[in-house]
Design a protein that fits this description.
CATH class: Alpha Beta
Helix content: 25-40%
CATH superfamily: Glycosidases
Shape: globular
Number of helices: 15
Radius of gyration: 21 Å
Bound molecules: 6-O-phosphono-beta-D-glucopyranose
CATH architecture: Alpha-Beta Barrel
Distance between the termini: 16 Å
CATH topology: TIM Barrel
């Protein structure tokens, strides 16, 4: 029962939640920059001004009315604009990663740092050189970069000029961006993920959408374009450097039936097909699965598929499968009043599990189940690229030092690492683990800083007050022992 010798241990962040520096060195805006902070119960929203200057707030996914322009309003706080200042502090942060013993680091490239509006023909050199310095520094510390090409930050310019992913022009813009990355960072980066949690386009409809057929039509069409864009990127990436290993990234929750009522079993299975398998099947097998017809039919979806798309999907299958895992979810056809949330899910409460400060089910056995079923299905190497506990942390002063005692986070991670170990013992080819938010960062869902995931505490609150100084939590030293013992010392 041991992790393979070359197992990759690291941590993960995304550009939009970590970097800040939203207007520096030629970077263009993305939607996240104009999204306010929220809480578990208060939604985040986007802000803009109407043509006559009237300030407005809208839903996170809303399109702007004709003539309106994106705007930061003085009474609002926009946590992603500064985030945790990773743009300026990355080189110091790499020292912390190295101290923990990271052998890999999952990060994303901000598309709009390289292509400020997304439509430029040539990239912004300052953006290109910035990430080159980051990759060189990682390599100098023997840390393998694992790079996500799109992590929820499509340039706002592309929404404005083309209307977003529903327009197939986005495919070419994305492939141009990816081609630039593959060419510029050849030899520096070998592990790439095309699109983060690609399946969220569908999960979001359940989670916060209106459930209408129109929403499904939009989501499936956008997804089709993203599948083709991803498959083309895979082909280009392989052609530029045959050493490149390019993966998909799926938001993954173990999905259980609430009862043994056959209707619940089927509903849970269908939910799993829609939320997890649909995207993984296309990206790993290179074709739409049989049940896709049922899924489209349920919502009268008419997919526009252009000549050559199916060939691209078949030619651009991924080399490995990656997923995020935070919680499991319970599906039922029966009426339940006690519902709970999770990472882009909502379902019935599971009486066998405990829940995090943010109400997400903590379920390490679910991770083992995921690993075993996903590997059995796909038979390609697997990497867990997000996992972790978003929790409240308290800073205490001891012996003149700031300390953060976070046994709850250590317990969560230990149990998930043990689940990984069991899955490996059962034959799963798990090659790496990058817990989410190795350093505290802005929550994607709520925009909060106080929902902390990190091994490293960042002094920043939900109103933008704080020094941004970094402090090692107890979990920092725990993870260091875990890595240096290759997963043996988990006490
Ligand atoms: C995943 C995303 O959905 O979950 C991350 O890829 C996100 O960007 C993470 O931060 C945790 O979610 P949250 O809402 O707690 O930040």
């Amino acid at each position: 029962m041991a992790f393979p010798k070359d197992f990759m241990w690291g941590g993960a962040v995304s550009a939009g939640q970590y970097e800040g520096g939203w207007q520096e060195d030629g970077r263009g805006p993305c939607r996240m920059d104009y999204t306010t902070g929220g809480t578990r119960t208060k939604a985040r929203y986007v802000t803009y001004e109407l043509a006559d200057g009237t300030p407005m707030k809208g839903g996170r996914e809303d399109r702007l009315p004709q003539g309106a322009r994106w705007a930061s309003l003085p009474e609002c706080y926009y946590p992603n604009q500064v985030a945790v200042d990773g743009y300026h502090r990355i080189f110091d942060d790499i020292e912390l990663m190295a101290q923990m013993g990271f052998t890999c680091y999952r990060m994303s490239i901000g598309w709009s740092r390289l292509f400020p509006t997304g439509t430029e023909r040539t990239p912004n050199r300052e953006g290109v050189e910035y990430y080159r310095r980051v990759f060189e520094c990682l390599r100098a510390h023997n840390i393998e970069p694992v790079v996500t090409l799109l992590h929820f930050d499509t340039p706002l310019g592309l929404e404005e000029s083309c209307g977003g992913w529903e327009n197939r022009e986005l495919i070419d813009h994305f492939v141009r961006f990816c081609t630039t990355c593959f060419m510029e960072y050849k030899g520096l980066v070998r592990y790439w993920l095309t699109i983060n949690e690609i399946n969220n386009l569908l999960s979001l409809i359940d989670f916060m959408g209106d459930g209408s057929d129109t929403s499904y039509q939009h989501a499936y069409q956008q997804l089709h374009h993203q599948f083709v864009a991803s498959a083309k990127a895979v082909q280009v990436g392989h052609a530029i450097d045959s050493a490149n290993r390019i993966g998909c990234m799926i938001a993954s929750a173990a999905t259980y039936p609430h009862t043994c009522d056959p209707a619940d079993i089927l509903a849970a299975d269908h939910k799993r097909q829609e939320n997890a398998y649909y995207c993984g099947d296309v990206q790993v097998f290179g074709r739409y699965p049989t049940y896709a017809r049922r899924l489209w039919g349920e919502h009268d979806v008419e997919l526009a598929i252009a000549d050559g798309d199916m060939d691209d999907l078949a030619a651009g299958t991924v080399d490995f499968y990656t997923f995020s895992y935070y919680n499991s979810n319970v599906v039922t056809t029966h009426k339940v009043t006690d519902t709970v949330g999770g990472n882009f899910q909502v379902g019935a409460r599971n009486e066998y599990l405990t829940y995090s400060d943010w109400g997400w089910a903590m379920d390490p056995t679910g991770l083992q189940w995921q690993l075993e079923t996903l590997y059995d299905r796909y038979q390609v190497p697997i990497m867990i690229v997000e996992n972790g506990l978003g929790a409240f942390d308290e800073v205490v002063e001891e012996d003149g030092e700031k300390r953060i005692h976070d046994p709850y986070r250590i317990d969560y991670l230990r149990e998930h690492v043990q689940a990984m170990e069991r899955a490996i013992a059962n034959g799963v080819d798990l090659v790496g683990y990058t817990p989410w938010g190795w350093i505290d960062l802005v929550s994607m869902g709520t925009g909060e800083m106080r929902k902390r995931y990190g091994f490293v505490y960042v002094d920043m609150d939900d109103e933008g007050r704080g020094t941004l100084d970094r402090y090692r939590k107890d979990s920092f030293w725990w993870y260091q022992r875990c890595i240096t013992s290759n997963g043996k010392e988990l006490g």
